[in-house]
Write a structure and sequence with these properties.
336 residues, alpha/beta, Nucleotidyltransferase, domain 5, 3 domains, 12 helices
Length: 336
Amino acid sequence: MHIIQGTVPYARRLAAVGPELSRAARQRLKWMDHYRSHGENAALTCRYFGISRQTFYRWRRRYDPTALASLEARSHCPTRRRRPTWSPALAHAVRQLRDQYPRWGKDKLAVLLRGQGRPVSPSMVGRILTILKARGVLREPPRHAISARRRARPRPYAGRKPQDYPVRAPGDLVQVDTLDVRPQAGLVFKQFTARDMVSRWDVLEAHPQATAKAAARFLTTLAQRMPFPVKALQVDGGSEFAAAFEAACQAQGVRLFVLPPRSPKLNGRVERAQRTHTEEFYEVTPCPPELGAVNRRLHAWERTYNTVRPHQALGYLTPQQFLRQHRARRGQMECH
């Protein structure tokens, strides 16, 4: 039983309806109550709730105080719906083929059906599959775990980078990757490269192997050589960026974002840095076989890269010059 609108309070009328009224309909009921309690002033009601007059008057015409369900949205489904044009025999043939080849889609199944003398389009096969799934007649086969596809292990601290994560200032996000360095045949070093996404400031260090402990040591080097605090790191899913490295990031309060599988383009800045260091340092500088000597020359190149080399992406400023301008602009904004 519905209670007629008048002096009956809003809460009591809703209590009479119970949970039958949706949230949107309850909001529209508030419009009507506000309209009645303010002298039926539609303009005032529309301004108060932030709605257009067209919307208000459309619901005002539908509103029946004796049937609050009149404030519910109406179905937009067409009166006449498209009827299936295929035969039960065709649907049975589609089901048989899908059961036989559970991973094949509508395009492949349509080819097989035409080979059986059944002229059918892929879209029709797709509609048949959709209806069969909705009826519960066709079900996906269970997946069997195999060694070729390994499930990602849960990370205790690292995670995906949120889409709304802001990268505006130096240190907001630093991309890290590794590079194979081969000074001689049969000798391989692993270079850890870190690039700040805003200032293009790079930190480089070579290690005997790309292990999690080596990555954790590089994290200490990164904190010492970056001229600003690092808030977050972005790495790929390599094992060197797990275990001890992940624990070190958590201990230092540095957020750690891991890329999805097979998506190196999302680490494009540091990937481009690897190419630059290969072309402008390793290909023109003799690389000694001793790791200590490699790191000394690499450190010298790092200083050149950050303080001497003009960067096209920075308007031909060096990362050091860019940082000075950025800090000057920030100081001016704080003064104002």
